[in-house]
Amino acid sequence: MATFTSTLPDDLLKRLGDYAQKLSLPKNKLMENALNLYLEHLKRAEYVKSYRTASEDIDILLVAEEGMGNYLKQIEDEAR
Hints:
Helix 1 (about 10-25) packs across helix 2 (about 25-55). The chain has helices at about 10-25, 25-55, 60-80. It has one domain (about 10-80). By secondary structure, the protein is mainly alpha-helical. The protein is elongated.
C-alpha cells in the first residue's frame, strides 16, 4: 500500500476527525471509504452521460431498434 500525504482545510479535518471518532474508524480508513464512494459516483455519472449522449445519436438509436427487432424475432421463433 502506498503512502499519500495531503493538506486539508482545518474545518474539513475537524469534521473528518469527529466522524472517525463517532464511527470508531481511523481517519485514513474513513477517507478511503469516502473516496471509493465518490469515485463510484463519478463512474455512474459517466455511464449516465454516455447513455444520454447515445439517446441523441440517430445512428445508435437505429442500431438499437434493429437489434431489438432481431431479439423479438428470436423469441418468437423459440416460442414455436
